[in-house]
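Input structure tokens:
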């Protein structure tokens, strides 16, 4: 089940169901596909304290979502949108981000040893007190 940050049920599926294609919803082909249609976009959703270790996300839209305390170790994100998303005390060790949009997001007090950030939009992102030792930003 996926809930909004206000506690209301948004989808009767888990995020893993969406990744595995076990829903009736289509996913957008790119983070830039923000038209109103039947495609699943996770705007204002609460993923705090959940485990998404070693998962692969392609073209998911997570705008204004909360990943506080989530475990994203070894997870790969390709062409995902994280506009104004909140990552606070999130475990990002070994995570990879390719062509992702983090504009105006918050990545604070996170641990991201060995993470990879390639061609990401990091405009106005708050990286306060974050540990990205041995990480690569290209």
């Amino acid at each position: 089940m996926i809930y909004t940050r206000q506690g209301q049920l948004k989808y009767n599926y888990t995020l893993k169901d969406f990744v595995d294609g076990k829903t009736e919803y289509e996913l957008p082909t790119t983070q830039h596909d923000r038209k109103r249609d039947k495609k699943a976009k996770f705007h204002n959703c609460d993923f705090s304290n959940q485990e998404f270790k070693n998962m692969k996300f392609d073209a998911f839209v997570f705008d204004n979502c909360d990943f506080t305390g989530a475990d994203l170790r070894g997870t790969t994100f390709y062409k995902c949108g994280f506009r104004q998303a909140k990552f606070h005390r999130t475990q990002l060790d070994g995570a990879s981000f390719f062509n992702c949009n983090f504009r105006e997001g918050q990545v604070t007090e996170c641990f991201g040893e060995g993470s990879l950030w390639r061609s990401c939009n990091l405009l106005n992102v708050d990286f306060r007190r974050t540990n990205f030792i041995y990480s690569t930003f290209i």
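The radius of gyration is 14 Å. Residues 15-19 form the longest helix (5 residues).
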